[in-house]
């Protein structure tokens, strides 16, 4: 397992969080009624060196199950938790929930469910561009000062808003962002996979290159587009068709298959390694259904790609 460093704050002192570059995503798969199966997967991830878990207030049960698991293993200080807040409620997906009050409500609920008094990484799950960044950054800073958050970041924010928020923090002596969590994958989406989601474009990637702020990618394997389950003629999954079916992505798939054969690995593993072989620090959030899928992803994380190989499979040469 490889690790990246993320800057944080503890007791008003700068600390470094060493985080595995493969992140265990939890989403909706962690539920109290499948605790036994989930425990096997979580345990194996840690055994293999993983230490960063991705969750969110929006993910219903996953925070509760993570809290139960950490309590049973007594390993809270040995793992890192990334959770997210300020997602619209499921009953009103088009209504933004990004305010100091929403931050307070979601963070405190997350801490209760996780059975902890702090989270290592905290991200705002969505944005509301109509809201000024000042009160948002001030609210996050208060929680960092109170010890409830070690490091702050954003998920699904556009680059101009990220830069505006970070500049506000810099100019006002507040906690600055330590990471960004958009989608980044070899397969390029034709539209947002979910409402108001953001994928890293060329400008965002260049910003990460310049700042070296870590990027934690969700849907790093593009829903398994290069897993062998999909092809241009297979159109049963309407969401995948609308989001990923393009001539360029199928050409990427052909190149990935060639490179995978040369390296004696699977195409899906090469597609994951693309995310982890950027010029800036990066992590891939994965959602394995079982231990076999987890171990396959970890093998993909070990694949080293040259800059020429990264550019070639991404159709840049």
Automatic annotation (TrEMBL):
Q: Its GO CC terms? A: cytosol
Q: Where is the NADP-dependent oxidoreductase domain?
A: 22-314
Under the heading CDD domains, the entry gives: AKR_AKR10A1_2 (cd19082)
* Pfam families cross-referenced by the UniProt entry: Aldo_ket_red
Top-level lineage group: Bacteria
The UniProt keywords, alphabetically, are: Oxidoreductase
Q: Which GO terms describe its molecular function?
A: oxidoreductase activity
Residues in the signal sequence:
none
Q: Which SUPFAM superfamilies match?
A: NAD(P)-linked oxidoreductase (SSF51430)
Q: Which InterPro entries match?
A: AKR, AKR_Detox_Biosynth, NAD(P)_OxRdtase_dom_sf, NADP_OxRdtase_dom
This chain belongs to the protein called Aldo/keto reductase
Q: What is the organism field in this record?
A: Virgibacillus necropolis
């Amino acid at each position: 397992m490889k690790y990246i460093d993320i800057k944080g704050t503890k007791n008003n002192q700068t600390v470094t969080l060493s985080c595995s570059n493969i992140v265990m995503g939890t989403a909706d798969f962690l539920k109290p009624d499948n605790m036994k199966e989930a425990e096997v997967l979580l345990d194996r991830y840690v055994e293999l060196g993983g230490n960063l878990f991705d969750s969110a207030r929006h993910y219903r049960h996953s925070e509760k199950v993570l809290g139960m698991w950490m309590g049973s293993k007594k390993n809270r200080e040995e793992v890192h938790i990334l959770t997210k807040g300020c997602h619209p409620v499921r009953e009103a997906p088009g209504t933004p929930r990004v305010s100091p009050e929403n931050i307070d409500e979601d963070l405190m609920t997350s801490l209760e469910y996780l059975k902890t008094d702090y989270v290592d990484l905290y991200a705002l799950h969505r944005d509301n561009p109509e809201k000024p960044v000042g009160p948002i950054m001030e609210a996050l800073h208060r929680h960092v000062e109170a010890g409830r958050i070690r490091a702050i970041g954003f998920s699904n924010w556009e680059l101009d808003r990220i830069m505006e928020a970070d500049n506000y923090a810099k100019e006002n002596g507040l906690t600055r962002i330590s990471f960004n969590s958009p989608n980044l994958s070899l397969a390029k989406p034709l539209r947002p996979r979910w409402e108001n989601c953001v994928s890293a474009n060329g400008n965002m990637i260049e910003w990460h290159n310049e700042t070296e702020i870590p990027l934690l990618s969700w849907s790093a394997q593009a829903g398994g587009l290069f897993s062998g389950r999909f092809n241009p003629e297979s159109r049963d999954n309407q969401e995948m068709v609308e989001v990923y079916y393009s001539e360029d992505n199928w050409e990427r798939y052909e190149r990935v298959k060639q490179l995978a054969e040369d390296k004696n690995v699977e195409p899906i593993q090469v597609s994951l390694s693309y995310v982890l072989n950027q010029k800036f620090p990066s992590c891939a959030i994965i959602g394995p259904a079982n231990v076999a899928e987890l171990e396959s992803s970890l093998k993909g994380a070990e694949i080293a790609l040259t800059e020429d190989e990264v550019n070639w499979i991404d159709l840049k040469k």
